[in-house]
Amino acid sequence: MLLEIKNLNAGYGDVQVLRDISMQIPAGQVIALVGANGAGKSTLLKTICGLLPPTSGSIFFEEEEITHLSSQEIVARGIIQVPEGRRLFPRMTVEENLLMGAFRQQKKGGALLEKVYAIFPRLKERRRQYAGSMSGGEQQMCAFGRGLMASPKLIFIDEMSLGLAPLIVDDLIDVVKEINQQGTSVLLVEQDVQLALEHSEYGYVIATGRVMMSGPSAELMGNQEIKEVFLGL
């Protein structure tokens, strides 16, 4: 098991957000984490990544407990997040933004750049352009590429489809499949339940800070409650 979470609780001050979250991410798979806005998805990612201390529970990565490690230590172990909203440096060039992702692997920066440019040729065309001047889809590619520059073992992709045209989302999903085939495990975090479940092997449904349902993605897609609540069917 690559990542294992056991009975995780976390929140902000007196407000508890996560309630006894338990989930597993096997090595080599694409796993979906789906739920409505405010369900606790981003809080869970912050807690795993060391940005928010849990109040109780445990997190294990490659069988090592990482519950109380700093975010820098967690990144060094191979967990990377592509954040919601991209969070690029708008007055830096595309290439400068990408190189920020390789700050721990500067000697490999050139080779990693070429690898990212092979996946996203458009970024190579725009490598000298300010990141803030690109379209939303191109900025999402840059955020994705910056994450890949860290050579992650596990990558969290938070709300990848938000505000993007369907054709751009299709291209990004192809990249998710490609990097997964190359050995990177993926947690696809989405409000778009259908998108996430269609392109993952196993899924977790979160609501009010709890895992309400989990199972093979194909089975979840056929679940009547999910059809009614999330897909409007």
Q: What is the element layout, followed by pairings?
A:
Elements (H helix, E strand, L loop, with lengths): L2 E10 L2 E11 L4 E5 L6 H8 L7 E6 L2 E2 L5 H7 L1 E4 L11 H7 L8 H11 L1 H5 L10 H13 L5 E5 L7 H16 L3 E6 L2 H6 L3 E6 L2 E7 H5 L2 H6 L4
Parallel strand pairs: 3-8, 3-9, 6-7, 7-8
Antiparallel strand pairs: 1-2, 1-4, 4-5, 9-10
Helix pairs in contact: 3-6
Structural features, described:
With 233 residues, the chain is α/β, with parallel strands linked by helices. The protein has one domain: P-loop containing nucleotide triphosphate hydrolases (Rossmann fold, 3-Layer(aba) Sandwich). The protein has helices at residues 41-48, 71-77, 94-100, 109-119, 121-125, 136-148, 166-181, 193-198, 217-221, 224-229; strands at 3-12, 15-25, 30-34, 56-61, 64-65, 79-82, 154-158, 185-190, 202-207, 210-216. Strands 6-7-8-3-9-10 form a 6-stranded mixed β-sheet, sandwiched between helices. Strands 2-1-4-5 form a 4-stranded antiparallel β-sheet, with helices on one face. It starts with a strand and ends with a helix.
Count of spatially separate domains: 1
Mean pLDDT: 91
Instruction: Say which CATH homologous superfamily is assigned.
Output: P-loop containing nucleotide triphosphate hydrolases
Biggest sheet record = 6 strands, mixed
Distance between the termini: 35 Å
Q: Looking at the structure, what is the overall shape? A: globular
Question: What's the CATH architecture?
Answer: 3-Layer(aba) Sandwich
